[in-house]
Design a protein that fits this description.
Blueprint: H1 2-25, H2 33-36, H3 43-74, E1 84-85, E2 94-95, H4 97-114, H5 121-145, H6 151-173, H7 181-212, H8 221-225
Antiparallel strand pairs: 1-2
Helix pairs in contact: 5-6, 5-7
Length: 242
């Protein structure tokens, strides 16, 4: 936290303000102000530094994908996926081969499909602003259901963030036809997988309960335990789930 306040945040402000001033000083003509504002001798060192930062950021994305997928599996909103623990002391240090493979294939498809990084701007903008808007919506749900805030307080705070996030999202919505549809397609695909898994496991759970109703309680594992719940309820998966 201290590093963010003392180093990262001021550096970001100086960088963004400097780029903005550079663009204004040159009449809005610069196409890549971050590199164009550098002296000739500093261009290659900055390219090396930017490349290293990209590698570090990619590792953070991969780790985040592993963590989110594991949480989704534990919440029973995704099918079970192989999880390898790579540390004897850190439970959060994991590796998921299938997720890693899907990420690699996705990156290669995006690189081949878009051709250059500038073409990814539309998809990136939709992803970031959409995530911001969804975070605000989920924050409202948490404030109401978990924190038990009054509706007026929760709604007031959500509207403040929602107004800003909606503005950003609508500003990027015009780019949907220029590549932003990729982000929406990926999100829709994940939503379809989750909803299919949840509805399917609930159906099998209900069907298994009906089949066990005629048997004794001890002969029905799901009924005997009294603790197994269908997907989407935060419990372990039903014994009848695939």
């Amino acid at each position: 936290m201290l590093a963010w306040i003392a180093i990262v945040f001021p550096s970001l402000l100086l960088s963004y303000f400097g780029q903005g001033a550079f663009v204004l000083a040159h009449g809005g003509a610069p196409q890549n102000p971050f590199f164009q504002m550098l002296p000739a001798w500093g261009l290659m060192p900055m390219v090396v530094l930017a490349t290293a930062a990209t590698v570090i950021a990619s590792q953070a994305v991969i780790s985040g994908a592993f963590s989110l997928t594991r949480q989704a599996v534990q919440l029973n909103i995704l099918p079970r996926i192989s999880i390898l623990h790579t540390s004897e002391t850190q439970s959060g240090q994991i590796y998921m081969p299938r997720v890693n493979l899907l990420l690699a294939l996705g990156v290669m498809l995006l690189v081949v499909g878009f051709g250059e990084s500038s073409a990814l701007a539309s998809a990136y903008g939709i992803s970031v602003t959409g995530e911001m808007l969804m975070t605000t919506i989920l924050l409202f749900v948490v404030m109401r259901r978990l924190w038990k805030w009054r509706l007026s307080y929760a709604l007031a705070l959500a509207l403040v963030f929602g107004f800003i996030d909606t503005g950003f999202f609508l500003a990027n919505a015009v780019k949907i036809a220029n590549g932003g549809w990729v982000s929406i397609l990926v999100a829709a695909g994940m939503a379809l997988i989750m909803s299919t898994w949840i509805k399917g496991t609930r159906y099998l759970f209900a069907r298994g309960s009906i089949m066990c109703s005629a048997a004794t309680r001890s002969a029905c594992p799901s009924a005997a335990s009294g603790r197994r719940r269908p997907a989407g309820h935060g419990g372990s998966q039903s014994a009848h789930a695939p």
